[in-house]
Amino acid sequence: MKSPYRGSFIIEGYWFGEGEKTVAIVGAMRGDEIQQQYICARLVAVLKDIERRGGIADGKSILVIPSCNPFSMNVSKRFWAMDGTDINRMFPGYDKGETTQRIAAALFEQIKDFAYGMQLASFYMSGDFVPHVRMLSTGYEDVQTACLFGMPYVTTRKPLPFDTTLLNYNWQIWGTKAFSIYAGQTSHIEHQAVTQTTDAILRFMKKTRIIKYRIQNAGYESVVFDESELINVKARRAGIFYRVANVGDHVKEGATLAHILDPYDSSVIEEVKSPADGTIFFMHNRPLTLEHSILFRIQKLDC
């Protein structure tokens, strides 16, 4: 797509193997998804070596697209720099529509016929997650296959009306087994999460006999649950967010998770406590919080 200010807008992909469209992996769709792009870049490097050694199964092909939005990343904007729209809310796209609709249409045309689709996604709320695989409950979701990633959690969620424009939803409707993979941060690189996520994707492709690759880590026996089961812990006061617990921690009911401090004298104006026994699945990671903001999401421990 031509640009009046810079070079042409080009989405670059890397093909591996030959034959049927087997796996499509999509990285950064937003301009701050640096970690997501880096994970795809690491996969490109590993897959080059696997292909060189003849490790891709006959009749299988893999497409990796590290970035779908280099313009926004170049100017440090999360959404499309010109109008603030989100490419991931534009699927299946419209080739005669607005810019982000046309980008989504061109991208979807290339990736809609793959057997498996993986998106390195980020959440609308700023925070830290336990790495997990997420699927929308469309009736076409495949929880059993999602467990092959060997990530700690597999979650499902009933789609809301505006979710019908997401890549995950449209991939499923068009017959692709689609998985959104959440790998921690966006705006900076966490090497442990990068390694864990890269290994999970390679583990999946090994277990489905797409590649031959030796994985040192066997992964997790994934815990599967619906996101409606998560318990939200909200701030009752606004102030400085001083966390005590961390994402992934196992906590007891009544345990202190964080303090909210007065920004003028640092006194504790609220002690945030866990409402149940469980695991911290999500945690707010900004230094300030507003009243009623979600600070933690707890995956309740089954008795």
Would you give an account of this structure?
This protein has an eight-stranded mixed β-sheet, with helices on both faces. Strands 5, 10, 12, 15 and 17 form a five-stranded antiparallel β-sheet that branches. Strands 14-13-11-16 form a four-stranded antiparallel β-sheet, with no helix packed on it. Helix 1 (34-52) links the parallel strand 2 (20-28) and strand 3. It starts with 13 loop residues before the first strand and ends with a strand. The protein has six helices and 17 strands. The relative contact order is 0.14. The longest helix is centred in the N-terminal third of the chain and has 19 residues, at 34-52. The chain is of the alpha/beta class and 303 residues long. Helix 1 (34-52) crosses helix 6. Helices cover 21% and strands 29% of the residues.
